[in-house]
From TrEMBL:
It holds the Pfam family Peptidase_M16_C. Belongs to the peptidase M16 family. Residues 190-367 form the Peptidase M16 C-terminal domain. Gene3D superfamilies: Metalloenzyme, LuxS/M16 peptidase-like (3.30.830.10). One of its GO terms (biological process) is proteolysis. Residues 1-20 form the signal peptide. This is Peptidase M16. Residues 36-149 form the Peptidase M16 N-terminal domain. Keywords: Hydrolase, Metalloprotease, Protease, Signal, Zinc. It comes from the Bacteria.
Length: 440
């Protein structure tokens, strides 16, 4: 029986490799500069229409932050042919769902529809691009929405400020130093013309990729895309600024007091390279090795065995220009933040000194194989990946080949990259503390 279980377990470990499927796609440019990617999958009668714009928080001015995220809300207000307040009703009444999201680097809009409503999805996204209504009513309405979002997610949420503190300390020149939600003061003082100008610069076809994935006929879809998006005028070339950060050579120590928490939080953050660099892929594997799941090194030691922490984590937040590698923990009982820092550093030093075991290495490979398969398990996931790889990596085919990068990473690279980036003199050490109460 033992041999049977072992064999079954081995088969389960390698199932992702056996079931990984190549994602077929076709891509081309319209005359106005919009990039188009089509993926046909007729196995289910569903379709995703999506548009990703190459604009995020990093494209904002330092005195006008929050605009990219604000537009994620504003461009659902309506168009010349979709009345205000009707966007979501139109989608749901036709059996669909939709949403949008913004990062530091891009903004993404999408609709999921039964495939017989493909044309509706294309028309709606062309409307958003060609005929948006940007007026004072919509701006004032969405300012209130964003204000409430900031209160809920940042101001009044436990540990809601950590990302703000980390970014402000890791980045001194780059716009990554502010959050996508931006400054409410900047949004409050912005004029209607400011928002119209932002739209004119960034919401143009030559700054966008349109992806259609699912149950489609390629020829008919191309015809509809040409009909709806082809006539949209090309915009001016989008200006791009570059920013350089000087290396961190001395430990940055800071504290932050949060009135919404009772348990302190330790965070250590390192500035890391752009997501397209091989080292960023290696850092992904290091974070999984340290804290992905209850069998990971930090969890097993610090939470399970020593019972020093409620939670430990490590994650690599890669972005287009730079990234940040963040490690942290919540103490339990009488354990202090310095106690946790010592334990975490011991695990990092082990990676820097010794090669991880072959068994742990194979476990990592299996995890990344599984993640790769899951990311392409739905047409909506495929649409997102196609847009992201084209726009932010300049390589659409990474949807098929990115896993090969992870497969090729060696144990020696894991050791060497940990040595290169995860050193005390290259990091921020943040003590995120409960607000001290004044004694009466």
């Amino acid at each position: 029986m033992k041999h049977t279980i072992t064999l079954a377990g081995a088969l389960l470990l390698f199932m992702p490799l056996l079931h990984a499927q190549q994602v077929s796609y076709e891509e081309y440019d319209l005359d106005n500069g919009m990039h188009v990617i089509l993926h046909q999958d007729n196995s289910a009668p569903v379709v995703t229409t999506s548009v990703m714009y190459h604009v995020g928080a990093k494209d904002e001015e330092s005195d006008k932050t929050g605009f990219a995220h604000f537009f994620e809300h504003l461009l659902f207000e309506g168009t010349e042919n979709i009345e205000r307040g009707e966007w979501f009703k139109l989608v749901t009444s036709n059996g669909g769902s939709n949403n949008a999201n913004t990062t530091q680097d891009r903004t993404y809009y999408y609709e999921n529809f039964p495939s017989n409503n493909l044309e509706l999805g294309l028309w709606m996204e062309s409307e958003r691009l060609l005929h948006p209504i940007i007026n004072q009513i919509g701006v004032d309405t969405q300012k209130e929405v964003v204000q409430e979002e900031k209160r809920l997610r940042y101001d009044n949420s436990p540990y809601g400020q950590w990302s703000i503190v980390v970014a402000e300390n890791l980045f001194k020149n780059h716009p990554y130093r502010w959050q996508t939600i931006g400054s409410l003061e900047h949004l409050a003082s912005a004029t209607l013309d400011d928002f119209k100008r932002f739209n004119e610069i960034y919401y143009v076809p030559n700054n966008a990729v349109l992806v259609v994935a699912g149950d489609i006929d390629i020829a008919k879809t191309k015809k509809m895309i040409q009909d709806y998006f082809g006539p949209i005028p090309r915009g001016k070339d989008v200006p791009r600024k570059t920013y350089k950060e000087e290396p961190i050579t001395e430990t940055i120590k800071t504290k932050f007091y949060d009135p919404n928490i009772q348990i302190p939080l330790l965070m250590m953050a390192y500035r890391t390279p752009a997501q397209t660099e091989r080292d960023a892929y290696v850092l992904d594997m290091i974070s999984s090795y340290l804290s992905s799941g209850q069998s990971s090194k930090m969890y097993k030691k610090i939470v399970d065995e020593k019972k020093m922490a409620l939670q430990v984590f490590a994650f690599n937040n890669s972005r287009e220009d730079y990234g940040s590698y963040i490690v942290g923990a919540l103490p339990v009982g009488d354990n202090t933040l310095p106690d946790l820092q010592k334990e975490i550093d011991e695990e990092i030093i082990k990676i820097q000194k010794d090669l991880i075991s072959e068994r742990d290495y194979q476990k990592l490979q299996n995890q990344f194989e599984n993640n790769f398969v899951n990311s392409n398990s739905s047409v909506s996931g495929i649409a997102n990946s196609l847009a992201r790889y084209y726009m932010l990596y300049d390589d659409t085919n990474l949807i098929n080949t990115q896993i090969d990068i992870y497969r090729s990473i060696t144990r020696e690279e894991i050791r060497d990259v940990a040595r290169k980036y995860l050193n005390p003199n290259q990091r921020l050490e943040l003590e995120y503390l409960p607000e001290q109460k004044e004694s009466k």
